[in-house]
């Protein structure tokens, strides 16, 4: 909670990575940070990785059919968002294309020190080494293991 509050108060030049078991509250913390940023009029983009990839696939189809919105335009949005909150990283089905998209976004944000919050149920060491090293750069990244249990498995309240 303290790491999320610190990031929400001033995300400038920081990355925050939460990892832990499914249902441990990582997405809830992401939403709370996004809400705080909204209230302070700090522009942010909160999206989960499967939806990000679906959005890019849709843009490729639009580009082929109608030219409504380009793939590069959407990619630029994800790469340059003032604050990117990326939920469920690792929930997508891995492929060479999705791995490339993830690297392109995170590498751009890393090189430009753009504020990024990541929630994942995968330990940072288990990512592609190029991504893991960026997520764990102690110069500006905070990595927090959320050891809370899955709230969905809590005992049913008697009523």
SSE inventory with pairings:
Elements: H1 2-9, E1 15-20, H2 26-39, E2 45-48, H3 49-65, H4 71-80, E3 84-89, H5 96-111, E4 116-120, H6 129-135, E5 141-146
Parallel strand pairs: 1-4, 1-5, 2-3, 3-4
Helix pairs in contact: 1-2, 3-4, 4-5
What keywords describe this structure?
alpha/beta, globular, 5 strands, 6 helices, 5-stranded parallel beta sheet
Helix content: 40-55%
User: Overall pLDDT, averaged?
Assistant: 88
- The value of Rg in angstroms is 16 Å
Tell how many strands the DSSP assignment holds. 5
Order of helices and strands: HEHEHHEHEHE
Distance from first to last alpha carbon: 30 Å
Low-confidence stretches are: none
Tell me, what's the shape? globular
Strand content: 15-25%
Number of helices: 6
Q: What is the strand arrangement across the widest sheet?
A: 2-3-4-1-5
Largest sheet: 5 strands, parallel
Structural class: alpha/beta
Descriptive account of the structure:
The protein has about 160 residues and is α/β, with parallel strands linked by helices. The chain is built from six helices and five strands. Strands 2-3-4-1-5 form a five-stranded parallel β-sheet, sandwiched between helices. Strand 3 (about 85-90), helix 5 and strand 4 form a beta-alpha-beta unit. Helix 1 runs parallel beside helix 2 (about 25-40), helix 3 (about 50-65) packs antiparallel against helix 4 and helix 4 packs across helix 5. The radius of gyration is 16 Å and the shape is globular. The relative contact order is 0.23. The mean pLDDT is about 90.
């Amino acid at each position: 909670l303290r790491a999320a509050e610190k990031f929400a108060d001033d995300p400038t030049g920081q990355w925050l990575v939460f990892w832990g078991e499914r249902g441990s509250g990582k997405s809830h913390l992401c939403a709370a940070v996004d809400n705080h940023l909204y209230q302070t009029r700090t522009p942010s983009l909160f999206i989960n990785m499967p939806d990000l990839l679906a959005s890019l696939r849709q843009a490729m189809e639009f580009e082929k059919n109608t030219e409504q919105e380009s793939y590069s335009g959407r990619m630029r949005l994800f790469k340059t968002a003032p604050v990117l909150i990326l939920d469920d990283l690792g929930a997508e089905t891995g492929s060479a294309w999705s791995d490339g998209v993830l690297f392109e976004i995170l590498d751009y944000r890393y090189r430009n020190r753009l504020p990024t919050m990541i929630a994942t149920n995968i330990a940072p060491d288990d990512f592609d080494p190029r991504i893991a090293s960026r997520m764990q750069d102690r110069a500006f990244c905070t990595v927090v293991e959320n050891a809370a249990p899955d709230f969905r498995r809590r005992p049913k309240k008697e009523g």
